[in-house]
């Protein structure tokens, strides 16, 4: 059985000032890849492609690796670049010859100049090349699902964990379902229920109430005739018509059952809509509420400036608060500031220099922080290997980087935007977050995979940023979505002083 694998995956913010360029595609996760290079990069890694490879080995598929493209979350890809990348994938599929199946890694919230729903566009284009061959795709939990996506694919399988530590597991599930289609006569039928709601950040699957939603999902998946089911919490930073949470269910040949179960779970989620949101406060307010001796290490997560959601990663609210409070053994992971990194590289490790740190991408990111720093360590490449649950075994690269310190506050300055999934990169720059008292991470939840098991406490904070709710105004969604008001602005989940 000859099975093609490939990926065009991007989480697209329509609010960020960060563009998506060819360089972004060329730099992340090994860059643009084709053929055997894909296997060499992703075998034995906790990634969707890693799961496809594992499934192929188990089921004896002849694997045909085609094309891989996955830049970091950022703004829309230009139409010309998208057409070129999609053209490469389609050319590889045509060159593959006769196929028995296709396994794709897509994100579920990719937007391109002139195309709001890039996933359905990719799926339809692939369908035109491969015909009636089964097409299965593995999606992010933050998918903005459309009916067009459901119509274009045979099976869509979303991740069930957040942080998304089940990437390989879900990729393997795609291969398992394909095997059932090819050998057992499984006839997958898929239905979607689109919930009129933007899901708040109360979606960490290890904790209630999200764990209860996943338990309900698993109850439905265990019913006779159900092949698989998924919850998509949506990607809330995309001003596109398909924005919103959803449930999608696949059954063996029974559309009525698939739709009934999707509607049932969708209604269960909607009834609890208020529980998916929680208030967030500034770093200063959070520290005041925690008092003198909070559990340590204390992890404060700056959700809005999460580079994993497309933010610039250089807001300065947390850093400024740490310095003003005179915190000791505190660190910030990471601040994206190529200019400051270059100054550190020029000075070298051990130097004392003056820097203006952060807030260079947009006035909404705050003001740069004037610092007199000790340059602890520098790296001209920023290469490392992930050793936490997310992306385990995969090589990462933060670009030229520096570890700076002022009066007990440590900052990792980086060139490339990536959230801290684990502590591996920090350790390459002589910073062990486990030894810190207070840790700030620019991440919404994925940091939990590598930090929560040893953290004394974790709190989500809100600082001014391009992705702050009060800066977002939706104009293109075409329907009312809880908790937006009539003008497309958030009613809940706002920070309070």
Kindly describe this structure.
With 497 residues, the protein is of the alpha/beta class. It has 2 domains: 2-275, 3-Layer(aba) Sandwich (Rossmann fold), CATH 3.40.50.2300; 280-466, no CATH class. 29% of the residues lie in helices and 23% in strands. The protein contains 14 helices and 21 strands. An 8-stranded mixed β-sheet has the order 13-14-17-18-12-19-11-20. A 6-stranded mixed β-sheet has the order 2-3-1-4-5-6, sandwiched between helices. The chain is globular.
- The CATH architecture designation of the largest domain is 3-Layer(aba) Sandwich
**Main sheet properties:** 8 strands, mixed
CATH fold naming of the largest domain: Rossmann fold
Name the assembly state.
single chain
Strands of the biggest beta sheet: in what spatial order?
13-14-17-18-12-19-11-20
Helices, strands, pairings?
Layout: E1 2-8, H1 22-27, E2 33-34, H2 36-42, H3 48-59, E3 62-69, H4 79-95, E4 101-106, H5 118-130, E5 135-139, H6 147-152, E6 155-158, H7 167-183, E7 188-194, H8 210-221, E8 226-232, E9 246-252, H9 255-271, E10 280-281, H10 283-290, E11 298-302, H11 317-324, E12 330-336, H12 338-347, E13 352-357, E14 369-379, E15 383-385, E16 395-397, E17 401-406, E18 409-414, H13 424-428, E19 438-441, H14 448-451, E20 457-461, E21 495-496
Parallel strand pairs: 1-3, 1-4, 4-5, 5-6, 10-21, 11-19, 11-20, 12-18, 12-19
Antiparallel strand pairs: 2-3, 7-9, 8-9, 13-14, 14-17, 15-16, 17-18
């Amino acid at each position: 059985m000859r099975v093609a694998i490939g990926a065009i995956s991007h989480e697209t913010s329509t609010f960020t000032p960060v563009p998506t360029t060819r360089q972004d595609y060329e730099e992340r996760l090994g860059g643009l890849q084709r053929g055997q290079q894909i296997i060499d990069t992703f075998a034995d890694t906790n990634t969707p492609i890693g799961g496809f490879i594992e499934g192929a080995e188990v089921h004896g598929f002849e694997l045909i690796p085609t094309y891989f493209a996955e830049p970091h979350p950022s703004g829309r890809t230009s139409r010309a670049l998208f057409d070129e990348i999609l053209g490469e994938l389609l050319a590889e599929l045509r060159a593959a010859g006769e196929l028995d199946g296709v396994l794709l890694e897509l994100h579920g919230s990719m937007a391109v100049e002139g195309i709001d729903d890039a996933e359905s566009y990719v799926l339809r284009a692939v369908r035109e090349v491969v015909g009636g061959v089964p097409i299965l795709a593995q999606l992010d939990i933050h998918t903005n699902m459309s009916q067009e996506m459901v119509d274009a694919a045979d099976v869509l399988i979303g991740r069930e964990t957040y942080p998304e530590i089940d990437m390989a597991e879900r990729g393997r599930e795609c291969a398992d379902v394909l095997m059932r289609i090819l050998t057992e006569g499984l006839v997958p039928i898929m239905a979607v229920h689109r919930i009129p709601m933007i899901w708040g950040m109360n979606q960490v699957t290890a904790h209630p109430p999200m764990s209860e939603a996943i338990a309900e999902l698993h109850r439905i998946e265990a019913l006779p005739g159900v092949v698989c089911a998924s919850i998509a919490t949506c990607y809330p930073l995309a001003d596109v018509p398909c924005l919103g949470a959803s449930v999608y269910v696949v059954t063996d040949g029974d559309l009525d059952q698939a739709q009934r179960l999707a509607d049932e779970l969708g209604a269960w989620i909607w009834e609890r809509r208020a529980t998916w949101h929680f208030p967030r406060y500034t770093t200063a307010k959070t520290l005041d509420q925690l008092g003198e001796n909070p559990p340590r290490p204390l992890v404060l997560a700056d959700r809005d400036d999460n580079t994993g959601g497309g933010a610039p990663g250089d807001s300065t609210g947390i850093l400024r608060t740490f310095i003003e409070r005179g915190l000791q053994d505190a660190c910030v992971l990471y601040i994206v500031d190529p200019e400051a990194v270059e100054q550190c590289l020029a000075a070298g490790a051990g130097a004392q220099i003056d820097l203006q740190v952060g807030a260079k991408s947009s006035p909404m990111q705050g003001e740069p922080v004037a610092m007199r720093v000790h340059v602890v360590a520098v790296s001209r490449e920023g290469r490392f290997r992930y050793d936490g649950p997310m992306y385990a075994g995969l090589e990462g690269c933060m670009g030229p980087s520096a570890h700076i310190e002022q009066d007990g506050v440590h900052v990792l300055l980086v060139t490339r935007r990536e959230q801290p999934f684990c502590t591996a990169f920090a350790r390459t720059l002589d910073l062990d977050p486990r030894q810190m008292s207070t840790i700030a991470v620019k991440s919404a939840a994925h940091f939990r995979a590598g930090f929560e098991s040893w953290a004394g406490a974790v709190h989500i904070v809100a600082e001014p940023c391009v992705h702050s709710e009060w800066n977002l105004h939706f104009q293109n969604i075409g329907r009312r979505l809880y908790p937006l008001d009539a003008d497309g602005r958030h009613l809940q989940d706002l920070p309070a002083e």
